[in-house]
Fold this protein.
Amino acid sequence: MSSEELTCKEVVEIVSDYLEDALSPQDRTRFEEHLAVCDGCTNYVEQMRETIRLTGMLTEEQVPEDQRQRLRQAFRDWKRA
Ligand SMILES: [Zn+2]
């Protein structure tokens, strides 16, 4: 990962690591800095966290693909709004 600011695309890619607490402290800080300024990603992370909680799945990888697709679609809609 570069030392540049995270893009929304990168946030979506590493959200599972974030939720599993698998990011380095540095990446975690960058992730949270992005969330602080980006409502779309904040919503995405919250929805993903909620989905994991509701389904009892341990990780984003275990969330059914169709549900992940729906979240990503919703995420794109937020970005457009
Ligand atoms: Zn974002």
Remarks:
- Residues 8, 11, 34, 38, 40-41 surround zinc ion (CB under 6 Å).
- The radius of gyration is 12 Å.
- The CA atoms of residues 70 and 76 lie 10 Å apart.
- Residues 39-55 form the longest helix (17 residues).
